[in-house]
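subagent[fold] <- orchestrator: predict structure for attached chain, return tokens only, no commentary.
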Amino acid sequence: MAGRDLRTLFGSNDRSLGTGEAFTNRGGQWERVAAALTEHLARVTEPGFDVQDLETARHNIIVFHGIGGVGKTTLSRKLEAALTAAEHRPAQWGEPAWPAAPRLLPVRIDLARSAGGDFESLVLTLRLALAGLDRALPAFDIALGRYWEHNHPGESLEEYLRRAGLVSRLATALPGQVQAALSKAAEELALPGAVGSAVGQVATAVVRAVRERRTTARALAGCPRLADLLEAEPDLEALSYYPHLLAYEVDRLPTKQAVVPVVLLDTFEDIGDRTNRDLERLVQRVVWLLPNALFIVTGRSRLQWADDALQGQLDYTGPAAWPQLGAHIPGARATTELATAPASTGTAADRQVLIGDFSPEDCEDYLTRRLTTADGRPLIGDALRQVIAARSHGLPLYLDLAVMRFLEIRRTREPEPADFDHDFPALVARTLQDLTPDERHVLRAVSLLDAFDIPLAAKASGMAHQAAALRLAERPFVRENLLSLWPYHLHAVVRSTIRRADDHTDDRWSDQDWASAAARAFEAIGEQWTANASRSRILLVACLRQGLTLARDHRLDLGWLAAAAWAYVADSVWEPLAPPTPAAEDGPPTLGGPDTGAAVLTTPADTLVEILSTLAGRQRQHRTHTADRLTRVIDSGLLPEDLTDMALYYRAKAHRDLGRTGASRQGMQQVAAGATRLAPAARRGLVHLARLDGDFPAAHEAAQTLGWAGRQHRVLGDLAWVHAQMDQAATHYQAARADAEQHTVAGERATSQAQLALTHAFTDPGTAGDDLDLAAQLLAGLDLRATTLTTRIAALVRDAGTGGRDFLDRAAVLDAEVRASGVRAARTTLALTVCFHHAVLDDDDGLDTAIRDLDQLTRDRDYAYYTDIAAFMAGRPLQYPSPARWLDGDQAVRDRWRALVTERQDRLRTAR
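subagent[fold] -> orchestrator:
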């Protein structure tokens, strides 16, 4: 049904402004209602259906719940209009599938406190809806007349309806129908005129007649509980049972007048709270006692009626009573509605539907049609609509508030995208309005967190108990992801607004309150990590992501972050931590934003964030960028000695990868001279530098003292393979992999396996294929760029001498990637692989070119002996020998490398 957006109409002097009500498709919810209605109609028209059966499970309710401002009331109104007349059904909704008869009778009741309704008004509204049948409903009307006389002496029903705002054409008809029921009962029971005019006397006579089963009371005798209700004290409690009489009367309507009430209860959250269910108990009683009416409930929270724990607070509880509502189990609540949902699958989620946010397309549609020019064009331009839609995260309330802001700004100037980098205080008020003080306290605390569980929420809020956190977790603005370590997170707009918008509520937090909550959350996260005996990698990374954000944005001491940072580095996995960009002066950090590498370093936490994001990012960045960022960290002087050594060591590694041997050696020596955790790794780094120089005896001697901490077996394997001692190298790499497995260091295990695959690729291509498969499995989930490059080089070594042009094309593609990484070791090894390929093919021209390319890469002394190896492969003399000092003489090395080439040639000839 088309409406007028009066708020917008009165928000501008522009009379050409189009202010038609914008309704965005809720087709999925319409389909769920249609399916529920079809099922309900089939049930109430079955021959065995009995409205007086008080024990059968109820299937006459569907619940739509969701965050404030998501469009529940709009949906309720549109459903009422669509069920009233076909022409009022939104164009996006399909034709109903239910039969035309019996007729649907929609009744919408707003339970909002602001609407001024009460339970008495609810019952009267239900009866008023049936007044259009133009007939008395004697069982109900006699009981209502008795109740009215007792509770409203001297006040006519018509006067009350007018005063209560229940004024309509039917409001004048209802009192007459009630009086007609009383008069007819008095007439049938042959009561004297004076007596017949007294409601109490009529009721007493009806009770007697029903109990005596008189034929004069046959119209009422079919409702055996009528007499009991008429004898009961006519108070509010009794009134809540009168819907049973209404169900009886609706059930016995003639076929031509038969109707099926569809009762839409909106703003259900306002009938009470989780600690006071008095009104909810009365309303639930109405639903139970009217099984031939379908109730469509819209509210902020799911109904808990199927929870056995509420027994005693409500009359009808448990899954046996409400099989389609489902008792709430953490992690089992209904998810966002899907348009393809079946009518009934018998699952707990069938009739508890979480109304989701708008899709980007729906946001665009809403903003396009909400404000239009005189010729029907959207008033809000394309670019601005995209900004508002993205900022809204699909929340309709945000879109509505943004439209009003657009009109406000438009009075003085043309709105710009920057105007909508804005949070609305009204959104805070709407979110907080029905929360208890404890729930509000927990909500503010968890707004500091990307994700949380119940213990974390309780500790962050400083609560000694978890009840408020448990209640908050059931609110629709708290989303749930069962696959996450911490299953709960706030709706993005709610979280941003709670943290940023001016909060004018009475219990708003001061800056000190926010700082205290951040410190509590930080400590609680650290406790979860330190208390985990298995030292789960998933938990470690999750704690680091949240802990780094809190420490940096609230200028906290490093605390447990230092130990966690070392644990992160030790495994060499390098998951992206995706820390938020630094907090701007006018708002909070943008979570998960791009790493710009230009963070301002003013606290130790800033600096630790920069180190860890640099180390994770180096797997996707050129090593020059890594070295520059780590230099900024070192120069800041903000970190303790051990964490400074972390920056020194990884900068030295970056220098080595870039060919800056002198700078790398200086950094490694500085770290190796200390007693921090990376001293053994730095000593390994010095051995690698000696190997790069070709000083193999010195490297071999130093390697003997490295032990596991210095990755001794892998270092010895690296020395052996350049000497073409492939069996010895394979033995060392296998031992290195076993050590890594024993110490559960995933990155080292994958690196050792990749090196083993490279070794076997020279000697046994078949075995190398299996090694590469295993390396790929070990690399799954890791972010190790250099190791991944090693596996791809190993695959080329395996295929050397085959593939023709395809081999060289693969090598060229890989060379471009290696150049982008800045990892010089990978580039020189790839160039040596190309030399091996040409040597196997006896392609002298190709080998000449490949050796010249290799020589260009190694002219500054590092890896200079690679040109020697290339010559050894082809059996060529050394024109310009490198200064390498081979462990067992150059002739032995020459023979072994040449043997690898001839063995490959023999293998290929045999294969032909």
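orchestrator: received. Logging for downstream: Confidence is low (pLDDT under 50) at residues 193-197, 327-349, 582-597. Residues 27 and 94 are 8 Å apart (CA to CA).
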